[in-house]
């Protein structure tokens, strides 16, 4: 692939494996940068490559340790801006803090907006994000946001399984649009679970709208965090007579009790992508498969650099 010498792709410390795959797809070496810490934990980033006049991309996920990775992202942007990069695109495979995107009760913050403000203030010119928790988060930025989906990668995997009598289940009402995309591309029926979140850790699935009896079920979600949502949903579809239960999700955060919950849940296969690195316990799950989104991200970086359409990647 021909890319001008003008492009530089840097990796923060959140997901170097994904950044390396993106660079491989693009056929460019990873940008040189030294990320170090002062004894008190303060970070310092030294860009080792000349970026004056360059089109720079920084790959950084807002995954664990969330606050540290977000601050590192801001420092990286500041570093490139002060080194006279022409344009800085922040590639955010997983946007941390996105779930707090509205005041649904009094005296709470809107962290998604706060983080967007910080990224802009640090000096980012563009954002390249994947499966934002809510698409309208794009409007939190006053700079261009390209929003990618992992759905083509997950769909391809499930298409190859040639699943018959398939019902796509949205594990909560917020995921209906995502589920509808899978329905279109996999030719299944749609069912929806009405869930109630009792606390950050505890989820109650109340009812299913749609039929799963005797059907193979594919549940899709953007994030699996404590796995409360997906495991509760898996139990309820199984109780209602589902045959095999598959789960496809973009961001496998898998924190807290997630690994134990998934190990005990009636899930035949759980597929996540590499937008965040998985912890070692999660990697031991027998029914877990990890797919890479590096090609989608790499292709989008190439198109941004060449001023080509991104939306046509998903037509
Ligand atoms: C919720 O709106 C999201 O789409 C996910 O369903 C949720 O974040 C998953 O969280 P957990 O795995 O902790 O239930």
CATH topology of the largest domain: Rossmann fold
Total number of distinct structural domains: 2
Which molecules are bound in this entry? ribose-5-phosphate
Specify Rg, calculated over alpha carbons.
20 Å
User: How many β-strand runs?
Assistant: 14
Q: Can you offer a commentary on this structure?
A:
This protein has 315 residues and is of the alpha/beta class. The chain folds into two domains: 7-149 and 294-314, 3-Layer(aba) Sandwich (Rossmann fold); 151-291, Rossmann fold. Helix content is 30%, strand content 26%. It has helices spanning 16-26, 66-82, 111-122, 151-160, 176-186, 228-239, 258-264, 280-283, 294-305, and strands at 7-11, 33-37, 43-47, 55-59, 87-92, 126-130, 145-148, 166-170, 189-197, 203-209, 216-224, 245-252, 269-273, 288-291. The mean pLDDT is 96. It binds ribose-5-phosphate. Ribose-5-phosphate binds at residues 99, 171-172, 174-175, 203, 221-229.
Overview in brief:
The chain has 315 residues and is an alpha/beta fold. It is 30% helix and 26% strand.
Blueprint of the fold:
Blueprint (H helix, E strand, L loop, with lengths): L6 E5 L4 H11 L6 E5 L5 E5 L7 E5 L6 H17 L4 E6 L18 H12 L3 E5 L14 E4 L2 H10 L5 E5 L5 H11 L2 E9 L5 E7 L6 E9 L3 H12 L5 E8 L5 H7 L4 E5 L6 H4 L4 E4 L2 H12 L10
Parallel strand pairs: 1-4, 4-5, 5-6, 6-7, 8-9, 8-11, 11-12, 12-13, 13-14
Antiparallel strand pairs: 2-3, 9-10
Helix pairs in contact: 1-9, 2-3, 4-5
Ribose-5-phosphate binds next to β11 and α6.
